[in-house]
Amino acid sequence: MGRPSVIDLYERLSSAPDERPRAKVIAEAFEMLDDRYPQLQEMVTQQDLQRTERVLTNANAEIRLGIEQVRADLTTRIEEIRADLTANIEQLRTEARAMDLRLTKEIELVRAELKGDLERIRANILLWSFGFWITQLAVLLSILWRMP
Predict the structure, then answer these.
(1) What percent of the chain has pLDDT over 90?
(2) For position 33, what pLDDT does the model report?
(3) Which residues fall within 8 angstroms of residue 34, CB to CB, at 6 or more apart?
């Protein structure tokens, strides 16, 4: 006769004399159901979906908390780095100003030394030029004196 129908199952259950044969009929019906629809064992129930949804919701909340913590940590670290950089920049600016002042003073000293050296050189040149002119005049006068 092939597969038993629902009516056959009902008749077997109602004609069973006590609980034991009824339980056997029910077990056979489940076995036939499993044989006929093996994918039913792999089907997801509403309860499974709700459990999975709760797990995913909790995991999502944990991930969000983790992301917020990382974001807070990164923000704090960025602010620390920004403060360090600002302090370093200010220190470098102060050092650059101090170096600029030292260089300006050294340049002024070198200018003063060069100015003094140039004035001494000019005085030496004038002295030598004067001596040369006097010597030329003396030579010229002696040549003119000896001429008849």
Answers:
(1) 61
(2) 76
(3) 40, 41
Place of tokens 């008749």: 11
Contact (CB, 8 A) for 45 and 52: no
- Alpha-carbon distance of 40 to 147, in angstroms, equals 147
pLDDT for 2 equals 56
Helix (H) or strand (E) holding 2: none
Distance CA 73, CA 23 (A): 63
The CA distances from residue 83 to 26, 38, 86, 90, 110, in Å, are 76, 66, 5, 11, 40
∠ Cα 114 117 118 (to 5°):
85
Supply the pLDDT for residue 10. 80
Taking the C-alpha atoms of residue 74 and residue 79, their distance in angstroms, rounded to an integer, is: 8
Alpha-carbon gap, residue 120 to 127, rounded angstroms: 10
Confidence class of residue 36 from pLDDT cuts 50, 70 and 90? confident
* Pair of tokens at residue 131: 């001596």
Evaluate if residue 1 carries a pLDDT over 70: no
Look at phi and psi of residue 38 and say left if phi exceeds 0, alpha if psi is from -120 to 50, else beta: alpha
* Residue whose C-alpha is closest to residue 12's, from 25, 29, 28: 25
